[in-house]
Amino acid sequence: MNRWGEKRYHSLDYDLKQNYGEKVYKITLDGGMTCPNRDGKVGRGGCIFCSASGSGDFAGSRALSITEQIARGKKELNGKRPVHSYIAYFQAFTNTYAPVERLKKLYMEAIQDEEVKILSIATRPDCLGDDVLELLGAVNRINPVWVELGLQTIHPATAAFIRRGYELPVFEKAVKDLRKLGITVIVHTILFLPGETKAQMLKTLDYLNHMDIQGIKLQLLHILKGTDLAEEYKKRPFLVPDMQEYIEFLGTCISRLNPQITIHRLTGDGPSDLLIAPLWTSQKRTVLNTLHRYLKEQDIWQGKEYHE
Ligand code: SF4
């Protein structure tokens, strides 16, 4: 198996090396946004799993400008190795939820750095109005733009439980609108949400297999301090997989996944000071090494069980 270099799946690293000839590093930014699922426009309290930093626990400081955050990110990365190419990743909160003039200023500031090769924007599918789409299309003509949509699951009961705050057709429209503009779409999913069976998780994957998306994040549910999910877990502890169970299930997911879709994440690394469970995920290297060994032993590769 050497279709994707040394890995048995279509990894982001592989794609970036193919397209840019070298490893491209992510600088995680905080553009000072909020979220309609927190400020009352869609809901209050946010998604049940979302931390106080709006799922941007590793993002730069919002007290700094984008230029300063990029400079700081570069300094940290360059201290360990020579780096020439970056992804400017707006991660914290909802990064298309602001007046379009403000968004334009933030995005343009990020891409004015010549070493920023890609602008990556995490957002909600219900925050992509016509003016925002027009802006994203214009920026995409200057620098490649990726938009990451937080879907998590296709199942309405789970979506209600996690307080996602939008229905599936909203996601489908967002994907179509972004693809019309030639924008790369990445979908964030969460595995082992409370109450979901493995068959349901695979159904979400099968659904995405047939959508026009280019990337996927498979994030294991993390229970973080200070979230409503942590309260729920305390009151009614639910199943959290151990490493072996998770690796075996990931093997099934990888095997089912459309080989055209790039995998951007396979586990997730919650900040150790906030992580309540599963604690084994903080050993990210061990998890990935164990997964790679498992895929080899079981002769699994991405798309082995995928049928068009
Ligand atoms: S949409 Fe994103 S930022 Fe908003 S509450 Fe949910 S996870 Fe947090």
How would you describe this structure to a colleague?
There is one protein chain. The chain has 308 residues and is an alpha/beta fold. The chain has helices at 12-20, 66-78, 100-111, 130-142, 156-161, 168-180, 198-209, 228-235, 243-256, 284-297, and strands at 25-29, 86-90, 116-123, 145-152, 184-191, 215-220, 223-224, 262-265, 275-277. It is globular and about 45 Å long. Helix 3 (100-111) packs parallel to helix 4 and helix 9 (243-256) packs across helix 10. It has ten helices and nine strands. Strands 1-2-3-4-5-6-8 form a seven-stranded parallel β-sheet. Bound molecules: iron/sulfur cluster. This is TIGR01212 family radical SAM protein.
Outline the fold blueprint.
Layout: H1 12-20, E1 25-29, H2 66-78, E2 86-90, H3 100-111, E3 116-123, H4 130-142, E4 145-152, H5 156-161, H6 168-180, E5 184-191, H7 198-209, E6 215-220, E7 223-224, H8 228-235, H9 243-256, E8 262-265, E9 275-277, H10 284-297
Parallel strand pairs: 1-2, 2-3, 3-4, 4-5, 5-6, 6-8
Antiparallel strand pairs: 7-9
Helix pairs in contact: 3-4, 9-10
Iron/sulfur cluster (SF4) is lined by residues 35, 37-38, 46-47, 50, 54-55, 93-94, 124, 150.
Protein name: TIGR01212 family radical SAM protein
Cofactor: [4Fe-4S] cluster
Keywords: 4Fe-4S, Iron, Iron-sulfur, Metal-binding, S-adenosyl-L-methionine
